[in-house]
């Protein structure tokens, strides 16, 4: 099939860019050194390619854990997020480890029948995570409640886009000092953290939870990371006026939290529900197909039912985005 | 069922607010004076309530037309958007009218087996629509190609949030003068346009394409419109730290193009994929359920598989958001 036969808007994944990204990460962080995060692509077909290189996965939602288990990718799933209802996790035929950062999330793991946890430690990003000095006590309580404590995790998400490498390394070391201090109290084999933005920088974790590297983001590309932008949204030009044109991709096909998408060779003016109005540098015609770069890949993928693997204009596979929802 | 039994994040629709909104619009623009736009809620169960008052509907995508037809709501569907592949429309067991603004979209309607069109006229919003002075010629070409031309449409979307009523009326009149001039050349019974923001202002159209009034938006509420905010996202507090807390609703549960959501009694700091970090004015506890107001309803709904109709904390119905995708 040719991309021109696809209904638009449609997610396209460049096969060469994806293959190169997966190979580059596998070379940099082979095997268990990388625990790919599936929240970035929500697609088990893509995760199966990652599973050739890496034995475990990171997930953000119960639904993602369920879908990965159902796809036979449940050998070692880390739900790197807090969960108050873990019953669906305990029922899975998979190895599930869940993050906890409070007595309530500890109790939820026990009540849900989860057997393994990591202690989520706040390393500076104001989000989830227990204060480092309290991590040991939570681990003790978890073990007392019959849980296996596999170690710690901490996400330095606020450092992912620091442009200067030396500065990023300094801040990452400060964050990881907190995680290592917590780990000294907690124990366990896992020190999990990091992401695509710090995959070369973070030398302190035992595994990096990288997600964006597979499909890549405009923001990460600008930050000088070596991975290639593999994801675009295919759109059709549906209207041309004097001075602007309109493509059939809008707010419901694009993650907008990082702002407007990019159209090579054009200035994007604004997006509506199902439209992007843009000023092309060269004339375009009604019916033209164009490729739009979303500003943020993760929430873009969450809006689509499927993604098409392409080699140039040839569609070589179509994958269900089968990990959407909660 | 109680809302506390729902998996979060979950879309909630307040039954009283929804009922009042539908009744208020039906009183202001009874019968065919309003052609409700389903893109705002993408839910045929909700459209069935609107169909008690209004005979026709507006849709934005081919998928929405298909879903409405399948739900028995296809008596008079206006696809108020340009389409280059109309084959799925022509195959529907429904009355389909499609907007055209170019020879290419005219040909697509013919090729797809669509029989009725409206001429989409640009009235000032730089998006789709033919220049008013060229509308008559396009209508002639459409009739020559065997199509029925039902009239014109024009959307003054750039005026929806003008705060001053007199100013909005003046600008709307200017826009509608263009649409009426085009209509004089085009003919037909339909002069379609407007939206929730101009439903009281626009006295020139024969029907208003209002969508947001049913569930309502933060932005429209601030603009002084009388409808009530019916839609919230139910979330669970999953982590509490000194100075902030985290709810399990993020970029994949919220339309972000209008910015961060609102949490009553709290300051929202930022959203991540599956988290909102906020500073509550009163202490919250892990496990608390909170209601989050998305900044933009339409793209929020597009991220959810279902919405729950609630009366206080009681879930009285659950509706599939069955018009998602393309």
TrEMBL record, chains A, B:
GO biological process: D-serine catabolic process
Domain D-serine dehydratase-like: 230-311
InterPro entries hit by this protein: Ala_racemase_N (IPR001608), D-amino_acid_metab_enzyme (IPR051466), D-ser_dehydrat-like_dom (IPR026956), D-ser_dehydrat-like_sf (IPR042208), PLP-binding_barrel (IPR029066)
SMART domains: D-ser_dehydrat
Top-level taxon of the source organism: Bacteria
Record keywords: Lyase
Molecular function GO labels: D-serine ammonia-lyase activity
Alphabetized Pfam families for the sequence: Ala_racemase_N, D-ser_dehydrat
PANTHER family linked: D-SERINE DEHYDRATASE (PTHR28004:SF2), ZGC:162816-RELATED (PTHR28004)
Protein family according to the UniProt entry: Belongs to the DSD1 family.
Full protein name: D-serine deaminase, pyridoxal phosphate-dependent
